[in-house]
Design brief:
543 residues; 2 domains; elongated
Length: 543
């Protein structure tokens, strides 16, 4: 509470007393990689009046010294792209939730249990119930008894031994992993569609300190909601994977025709003959037996997702929270150099070359993600301080438009997390049963951009547009209590992401000291990130 009060006090002081303008902000947060704070052109830096005077479009030099912007906004995303750049539900962009890998392995010598932890009774019971159910299901073959096969040079059939892959959790997981593709993540997986919504109001204040130097402060207040549904992929009808001429029932398992050799189980996974239990065995698991096996998995594990999650303190409730956003503060420099063309008696200014640079810091005043809330997302950089640098230039021509480019990066300082969700086997994805203490050193987030600006192209109406490419590099995660059961490398491999967006804005100068505008940020392409759209209106007071 004291920290929140101090943060609010700092923000109020900066907004009321500092002399601060804006440039692009990039974050650690792949739900909102390049937040916008104003509808005004981000690289004017309180320089509009001076530029217009230098270009000869006004007869008075009236430098701007201060502005204050209030901008309500709305943001949404319903899908994104995974690590391979494929379309994915928001809850699946890091991989579909693998509930089989949530269970304890059957081999007691396998190092999947972290030090200081015990598997919950729910986890052990669900594992044992599943394997027991599968043993019974495998031996079920309608009225004809146990599956049989005829060995070479024999005249009588003998019972078909249960496949090794059906005896252990590890074996069941091996059926997922061999030849798995995105479309084949069905056996023991949940797909998690999420609706992401964020809305609030952002504030910005800018002021010139002296000559070509000024300072900027930006922050906001926002509310985020994430609403999810958990779909058992076994029971999800996928007609495109069913085989013509099979029984028409709601369960995908019955798309396998009777007598299918599960070395090629068309409806679920692609395997390399894993059910070959004897040299000349056909490896056949009858259709009705496989149907029962899948029912075991759905009934004894998939339908118990809530109980399994609760037993490991993973909350699956919808996320709905309000918080202050991070505070961004930066110094900027910009200067216009005249581009002249000779005339009969003198050189005339045909445009301006305007280099600019900014250096700033992010102060983590925003709420962080909660390790025990599956749908929790941070409101900013998840508690990490950041240093950022941006530099670029524009060419502003007297009779046409202004265009240019820029590039920059954000460098994030490491932070220790006392409780951090961490996979304890290589097959886990999305949700993890155990936590540990770690130090996270985020990779840098860098960006490049192209901009164009048409100031007062129609009376008092202005337009600007911007293309941005943002990329976040690998994080480094160090275990503070080393334990071979934890796999931080899996999270490091999943940490990079990238996004491409376009910003489009219109502004109207109501008077010399007041303007209104609207801007939208539209996604172009992303990888391992939300496909987020943002819409904002703003009012700006300039003096």
């Amino acid at each position: 509470m004291k920290q929140t009060i101090r943060s609010l006090t700092l923000i109020i002081v900066l907004l009321c007393n500092s002399k601060t303008f804006t440039s692009i902000i990039t974050t650690l947060n792949k739900t909102d990689p390049a937040p916008i704070f104003t509808c005004d052109f981000p690289y004017d830096y309180l320089y509009v009046n001076e530029k217009e005077f230098k270009k000869g479009r006004t007869n008075y030099d009236d430098p701007l010294c201060f502005n204050f912007v209030v901008s309500p906004f709305y943001q949404r995303a319903n899908n994104g792209k995974d690590l391979n750049g494929n379309y994915a539900q928001l809850g699946d962009i890091g991989g579909k939730l693998n509930i089989l890998a949530f269970l304890p392995f059957s081999d007691p010598t396998h190092p999947d249990l972290p030090k200081g932890y015990e598997f919950t009774q729910e986890m052990l019971d669900d594992r044992d119930n599943l394997l027991g159910c599968i043993r019974l299901a495998y031996n079920y073959n309608g009225t004809s008894g146990v599956p049989t096969f005829t060995p070479p040079n024999a005249t009588e059939a003998i019972p078909l031994p249960i496949a090794e892959q059906l005896k252990t959790v590890e074996g069941l997981i091996s059926l997922q992993d061999t030849g798995r593709t995105v479309d084949q993540e069905l056996f023991g997986f949940f797909s998690v569609p999420i609706k992401y919504r964020k809305y609030g109001v952002r504030f910005e204040t800018n002021a010139k300190l002296f000559a070509d130097v000024g300072v900027t402060a930006q922050t906001g207040v926002a509310k985020i909601s994430q609403v999810a549904v958990f779909y058992d992929q076994i029971n999800c009808p996928l007609p495109q994977q069913c085989i013509p001429g099979t029984v028409n029932t709601p369960n995908c398992a019955t798309c396998i025709p009777s007598g299918t050799n599960l070395s090629q189980p068309q409806a679920l996974v692609t395997l390399d003959n894993p059910f070959q239990t004897q040299p000349d065995s056909s490896g056949v698991v009858p259709d009705n037996a496989w149907y029962e096996i899948l029912n075991c998995l759905s009934r004894d594990v998939m339908n118990r997702l809530q109980d399994l999650a609760a037993s490991t303190n993973n909350g699956l409730c919808n996320f709905n929270k309000t918080s202050i956003e991070d505070l961004h503060v930066e110094l900027f420099w910009r200067r216009a150099f005249e581009i002249q063309t000779p005339s009969i008696n003198e050189c005339l200014t045909c445009g301006l070359f305007i280099p600019f640079a900014s250096f700033g810091a992010d102060i983590p005043t925003a709420a962080k993600s909660h390790p025990d809330q599956f749908l929790s997302v941070p409101f900013g950089n998840n508690g990490h301080y950041a240093l950022r640098f941006n530099a670029g230039f524009t060419f502003d021509f007297t009779q046409t438009i202004e265009f240019g480019g820029h590039a920059g990066l954000a460098y994030f300082l490491p932070r220790k997390h006392e409780e951090y969700r961490m996979p304890n086997n290589m097959f886990q994805a999305a949700m993890y049963p155990f936590k540990t203490a770690v130090e996270v050193k985020p990779g840098a987030t860098w960006h490049v951009g192209l901009v164009m600006n048409a100031y007062s192209f129609m009376d008092c109406l202005s337009f600007w547009g911007e293309y941005l490419y943002i990329s976040h590099e690998h994080d480094k995660i160090r275990l503070l209590n080393p334990d071979n059961a934890f796999k931080p490398g899996l999270l490091e491999c999943q940490s990079p992401w990238s996004a491409q967006v376009i910003n489009l804005a219109l502004n109207y100068d109501v008077s010399r000291n007041f303007k209104v505008g609207a801007v939208m940020q539209l996604p172009v392409q992303e990888k391992h990130a939300y496909k987020t759209s943002t819409y904002m209106i703003s009012t700006e007071f300039v003096f």
